[in-house]
Amino acid sequence: MIRIQQLTLQTEHTRGELEARIRRELRIGPGESISWEIRRRSLDARKKPKLMFSYTIDVSASARLERKICDRADGRRVSLVKEQVYSFPEAGNHILNHPPVIIGTGPAGLFCGLMLARYGYQPILLEQGMDVDRRCRDVETFWKSGQLHPYSNVQFGEGGAGTFSDGKLNTLVRDSEGRNREVLRLFVEAGADPSILYDSKPHIGTDKLVEIVKTIRKQIEACGGVVRFGAKVTGFVREQNKITGVIINETEQLPCEAAVLAIGHSARDTFQTLYEQNLQMEAKEFAVGLRVEHSQEAINLSQYGKADPGSLGAASYKVTAKAADGRGVYSFCMCPGGYVVNASSEEGHLAINGMSYSGRSGTHANSAIVVTVKKSDFPSDHPLAGIAFQRQIEEAAWQAGNGKIPVQRLGDFRDVFTRRTNSGVRVSRTEDCNISCKRTESSDITAAGKAGSLTPSVKGAYVAADLTQILPEKITTAFLEGMEQFSRMIKGFADRDTLLSAVESRTSSPVRILRDASFQSSLRGLYPCGEGAGYAGGITSAAMDGMRTAEAIRTCYRPLAEKKERNIEA
């Protein structure tokens, strides 16, 4: 197979024009038979508003023609390649006496379950939350009424936290064994647009993810797997430090020799249970910050050189900086044409996230601007100290908005924080801070802004409030330093009218559950995997880790079905 790299074409082109460009690059005429596919497509906006697509193209032809092409081609852009095709490993020698149990149905749990189901292991997936349809209804009810379902919300339920996000599928995980592309292929198989196989920034959208998650569940069930909802794992049964079963809802005991711990990053009560059962774990650094909202037209103008994106769709951005104290500051979960959403999962604590639908047609762009949190910022050296830190700032956010998402304009936020830190005196919430400290109804937030100010684009109730007392002072200082640096990258990024919402606290797991080279924890037979266990950071990387965990089980065990077949033969 021949691979062409850095093949550029203006963004508005036809498939026929792309093929003609491929043939010119390879110097072959229309009479030569070839087949080709797009391997990767990225946007080149260096000469905006003149925008170009940069392609990597894989071309197949006869062996004779491929040799002829490569003999005369520029080796820097055209070369022969052999594609790495993903392969599930051969089964090990031990035979399971019971189906493997998978705890959690986020991307890690679903993809682990799908792989095991397809190879005859008949896995049992346990989810403490509800199925995705019921979950969507519960989330909508919460956004409208504030009535929180503790196990069916933005964080918990079928599909995991990633279901209520933009559905971004890009990852920085190095992949030499083809798992990344296999994850994308399986998403396409379940109903995602085929463009995710080659777009440099693939995304699905919350509305499409809901249906895709259901399809994957049905695929698991069609292969003999079982998915149970409202099934919370509340303990483990062990013998001589080996797992022999899990306890469901404190009463039911389900036997197993292999259990996959694919919990999410917000499964705090499960982390506590694991700690009490002496599972080896450690606190992990993560990042916290605030959501920022801008006009999508302004972001389009900055990124594309034009406000109307046309067929390109809403523009995204990625920004990084370093604060004076060395902390990293960066954009996280950027949602073009999206919404800020109330993503809380505990009463009295408020956490937010960003979400886009597949069309990304909203008027606002939002992203979290987050600052790295060090272990020294935690209140203790306890393995669960990161959770305590999260709860502290989430409680402060809940109090700031009295249960609603607290919102503030950047100019007011900066003024209040500067006045407080310069004077050394803590500013009252009701002092002369205009909108920054005055609690108002959601519809009144535009009153203090200039004409044309953004109104928050939010799922859930919000209120104008003072955000300066939510994050630790060092984190807030770094956040403001980062915003100023970003304003030099994207015009208007740190304008006074930029909207801030609090608090973004669930960027990744605050805990890592230790595992060895066999992917097992200190409790043998228990396989921690995915984002909650501290081994992934997003939908794709979590799905890939779920696949790796399925591989680890496969290399050790044969499925229960093989034991039954042998008994029948005997």
Keywords:
570 residues; Alpha-Beta Plaits; 3 domains; 5-stranded parallel beta sheet
Strand content: 15-25%
* Total domain units: 3
Low-confidence stretches: 425-444, 446-452, 565-570
Major sheet details: 7 strands, mixed
CATH homologous superfamily placement of the largest domain? FAD/NAD(P)-binding domain
Structural class: alpha/beta
Rg:
25 Å
**What order do the strands of the largest sheet run in, or round the barrel if closed?**
15-16-19-14-23-20-22
The fold-level CATH name of the largest domain is: FAD/NAD(P)-binding domain
Q: What is the overall silhouette?
A: globular
State the helix count.
13
CATH class of the largest domain: Alpha Beta
CATH-scheme architecture of the largest domain: 3-Layer(bba) Sandwich
Mean pLDDT: 90
Kindly state the percentage of residues in helix.
Answer: 25-40%
